[in-house]
Amino acid sequence: MSTRTPIAFLKGHGTENDFVIVPDPDNVIDLSPAAVAALCDRRAGIGGDGLLHVVRSAAHPEAKDMAAEAEWFMDYRNGDGSIAEMCGNGVRVFARYLQHAGHTAEGDLAIATRGGVKTVHIAKDGDVTVGMGKARLPEGDVKVSVGERSWPARNVNMGNPHAVAFVDDLAHAGDLYSPPPFSPASAYPDGVNVEFVVDRGPRHVALRVHERGSGETRSCGTGACAVAVATARRDGTDPAVTGAPVTYTVDVPGGTLVITERPDGEIEMTGPAVIVAEGELEADWLETVVR
Ligand SMILES: N[C@@H](CCC[C@H](N)C(=O)O)C(=O)O
Fold first, then answer.
1. Are strands 193-201 and 149-157 parallel, antiparallel or unpaired?
2. Which atom from ligand 1 is nearest to the alpha carbon of 89?
3. Given the CA of residue 85, which atom of ligand 1 is nearest to it?
4. How far is it, in rounded angstroms, from Cα 174 to Cα 180?
5. Residues annotated as catalytic (active site), given as ranges
6. How many CB atoms lie within 10 A of CB 186?
7. What is the average pLDDT across 64-73?
8. Mean pLDDT of 30-49
9. 78 Cβ inside 6 Å of ligand 1
């Protein structure tokens, strides 16, 4: 019989971008990249596009400095165990978890992330909105390709890197089993999330995404924001130029996100965030699979 303390987990999603959630307020669980990949494995583990390690900011070396502003730190990991700077759906599901666990109520709260402190609003109607901060648009032409086709892409940084390509048909993105090649290689030394976008109507687009460290996912929050920013520049609705906020509806394979950019560049994203299950890992399982 094991004498180990069982590890609690939850499973949640935001527009079907799904996460294993590991509450660990004092930061005592050893979540190596191999352990994260094992937990996110859809056949041999719990399964998820990524993992949300829920830690008190004061207990995490990367978040200590944010502890005065935000009690909780989202230590986000991609499904392959790699670390990313930011996860837009993740932070909304993280907020939902804090509400579910009784750490917060409806209304506003601040969450520390590697991309800085984000303000989240949990609405009565159930949707969760996050203030994503401002996009950066690094200069330079980027190209992404799938098979014989290639497209110019807009380089948008939402804390993490994105390449946004407007295509005629989302099927042209192919099976997305592997990361779409991009050039020049120097554009994304740490890899990139690639969004393929089509128009659906006025201020309404749809995307497919290949995420760095996770593969094709059914939604990407930072990706949806990058798409809204790139589309506004394409459409001539850039709020910094027009002086008026602009809102885009972004359909993702797993649902819909609504993104508003204001003239000062601040971006807000709204959508659903759901907790679907909670449980305990089988004693010793993690230890066995990552040994
Ligand atoms: N799904 C996320 C983005 C997660 C990080 C990304 N894969 C990266 O490596 O940058 C979102 O909702 O933003």
1. unpaired
2. 12
3. 10
4. 10
5. 87, 220
6. 7
7. 98
8. 97
9. yes
ipTM of the complex: 0.99
Is residue 1 pLDDT above 60, yes or no? no
Amino acid at site 25: P
Dihedral sign for Cα 219, 46, 81, 73, please: positive
Which of 22, 29, 119, 114 is CA-nearest to residue 73? Answer: 114
Q: Whose CA is nearest to atom 4 of ligand 1?
A: 87
212 annotated binding-site participant:
yes
For residue 264, the tally of other CB atoms under 10 A from its CB is 9
Answer yes or no: is the C-beta of 220 below 6 A from any ligand 1 atom: yes
Contact 111, 99 (CB under 8 A): no
Q: Is 193 known as a binding-site position? A: yes
All domains of the chain in start order, with CATH: 8-127+274-290 (3.10.310.10), 142-271 (3.10.310.10)
Judge whether 6 and 34 are in contact, CB under 8 Å. no
Q: Which of 172, 165, 245 is nearest to 203 (CA)?
A: 245
For residue 57, what is the DSSP state? Answer: G
d(C-alpha 238, C-alpha 244), whole Å: 8
Nearest CA to ligand 1 atom 1: 220
CA–centroid distance, 100 to ligand 1, in Å, is 23
Please give the model's pTM, rounded to 2 decimal places: 0.97
Element spanning 36, H or E: helix 33-40
